[in-house]
Write a structure and sequence with these properties.
Elements (H helix, E strand, L loop, with lengths): L1 H19 L2 H11 L2 E11 L10 E11 L3 E8 L3 E5 L3 E6 L4 E6 H4 L4 H7 L3 H7 E9 L2 E8 L6 E9 L2 E9 L4 E11 L17 E4 L1
Parallel strand pairs: 6-12
Antiparallel strand pairs: 1-2, 1-11, 2-3, 3-4, 4-5, 5-6, 7-8, 8-9, 9-10, 10-11
């Protein structure tokens, strides 16, 4: 009976810690414990309203995988097929409709991006090199972190990261043009066994490859 009580008490204590965690504590826990992961996502992009035009949302969906600290893959399936793959050295963007691949050096492309927040950074201190991080008020049952890029020439105004119990749930991204992009993750699996080959990319035959 004492053993059961101790186990039950430990569960309650853990639940209490998760319930009272700040956004930064949740983000730190996510980076520390999630060495790999995969999930489904839905992305809604809202452009700033223009005079005389109704505001329109564009919705896409797909799957996401990462292996910390330097590999990840976004695969957009609807409404258009597109892949974004970081293999540790190169960031590949493949647009099926355009029949085009763009390749960039990964070290130059990721520092102040949402990918650095969720998949690339090895720890919170590394993130703070490129972002000013602060707790944001809890809402929608999530703990939130506001990440503001330190680079003056960043294409982003800021990123809000929403977590629950140390697991990533939402990314809200506002770019320098006022465009808002919200990624909502579901079926998040922490630390699955992922092969390095999962993040290899080879341009299909006949596709134009542009290196930047």
């Amino acid at each position: 009976m004492r053993v059961v009580n101790k186990v039950f008490g430990a569960v309650l204590a853990t639940a209490a810690i998760c319930a009272s965690a700040t956004g930064l504590e949740s983000l730190e826990a996510f980076i520390r414990t999630a060495k790999a992961g995969r999930a489904d996502f839905v992305q809604v992009v809202t452009a700033p309203a223009k005079e005389g035009q109704a505001q329109r949302d564009k919705t896409s969906s797909g799957s996401f995988e990462f292996s910390r600290p330097n590999r990840f893959k976004f695969v957009y399936k609807k409404p258009f097929e597109q892949s974004i793959v970081a293999d540790g050295q190169t960031l590949w963007l493949y647009d099926v409709d355009l029949n085009q691949v763009t390749a960039r050096k990964q070290s130059q492309a990721l520092a102040s991006t949402p990918a650095a927040l969720i998949a690339s950074a090895p720890d919170l201190r590394a993130l703070q090199t490129d972002f000013a991080l602060s707790d944001a008020p809890a809402r929608d049952g999530l703990e939130w972190v506001l990440a503001t890029p330190k680079a003056r020439d960043s294409a982003l105004q800021g990123i809000r990261v929403g977590l629950r119990g140390g697991v990533l749930v939402v990314l809200e991204i506002l770019d320098s043009f006022g465009q808002r992009s919200v990624l909502t993750f579901s079926h998040f699996e922490l630390n699955p066994v992922l092969s390095v080959k999962s993040f290899e990319f080879k341009a299909p035959a006949g596709v134009d490859v542009i290196r930047q």
